[in-house]
Amino acid sequence: MAITNVLRNKAFWALDKLKGNSLKNDIEDIKSCFDLSSFELLQKRNEPILNKLLSEAVCNTAYYQSYKGFKHLSDFPVVNKLIIKNNFEEINIKQKNSSKASSVSTSGSTGTPFKIYQTKRKKTRNTADTIYFANSAGFTIGDKLLYLRLWAAYYKKNWILAKLQNVDQLDVEDLKDDYINKLIARLQKDNSPKGWLGYPSAYEKLCNYLDKTNSDPLNCNIKSIISMSEPLSESVASKMEYYFQNPVVSRYSNVENGIIAQQIPKTDYFTINWASYIIEILDMEKDIPAKQGEIGRIVLTDLYNLATPMIRYDTGDVGSFIIEQNLNNGFPMFKSVAGRITDILRNTDGEIVNPFIIYNNLYRYPELDQIQLIQISNRTYTFRINCTGTFVREKEFLNFFKGFLGQDAIVTAEYVNEIPLLKSGKRKIIVNLTK
Fold first, then answer.
1. Residue range(s) defining the domain that contains residue 423
2. Segment 297-313 mean pLDDT
3. 291 & 397 share domain
4. What InterPro entries is this protein classified in (predicted)?
5. What is the CATH number of the domain that holds 177?
6. Does residue 85 share a domain with residue 203?
7. Fewer beta carbons within 10 angstroms: which end of the chain, N or C?
């Protein structure tokens, strides 16, 4: 099986060579960006690519034509999904050959179904980004990819393609005890190199099963573990590393753009994909930069999509920058990526509560199978709790988290048999019902 992986790797790169080494060249370009000795040099390197994007937009779209006299990126307006949807024809750059662009759609799990176009150049860059960041986590092209997500019909690969690409399409909806038992047995019999890519909530189900069966660390030859789409708690990361003997990194990406950032192993920081994007952190209310270190809106400019320009695109997510001169060549990194704006938790004074306070303290209560915190009003919060038997530490649990929410907070518990998944197969830990 290991020979098969090597052959897959060689075949992949041989095919790329026949196509002019487009992926190899892009990967080398991405690497060269991160090898630069300062962020200023990276900005200088990106400047002509950014200017080409902005010039194409102002010359070839109705929406941006009034910005022809631009001096800086900040001269352009901030847009979001709704603005792009409502001005779709005016924002798109018409392609001389329709085969040069393809549509990309999101499922609308956040309430806004969304479609854009991407050029072939953008598609190639996305693939290069994926290979580069997967490799930085320990994954090699040709290894078996244990891809754990909701496999809706429009995502699922046909079995021949999946076999050729060595992708094991594991569906989160199948994660029952009997299925997990057979999966683990199969992984232990297969000694070929493998990598995990999946939702943290799905990893949590795997780990809960292994906890319940008093499992020892498993010998599955796992070379990489990447989490995606949901915040990764320290508890799940620690358990996955224990059972599969490899550190877990969290990836921040979206369908419409690609890989935006990925966690540096053994740290809380995220390397931002400055090679393919320009990232801004803007104030929660105004289109001005957030203060250094404060949580704000993640606004992205996609340097490589000349079909539907994504210029100062408000991703709907929030995060904060950190700059460590001794790490990552002093490039700004994400200190945190906190998830959707609609899921931001606020205390009784209206201040944003870092959601990782919730995620990273759940290890204190291992008897809980699942939890979800719902903010009902400015002062009212409910924890939905799924656990086996009686939760005898309920009062301690509620008082602990009340300390972060406010002493005048009203915090209650509601017991449920299951916290359902979203249509996307993900599970929210925080839900804010306030306006």
1. 344-432
2. 96
3. no
4. ANL_N_sf (IPR042099), CapK_Type1_Caps_Biosynth (IPR053158)
5. 3.40.50.12780
6. yes
7. C
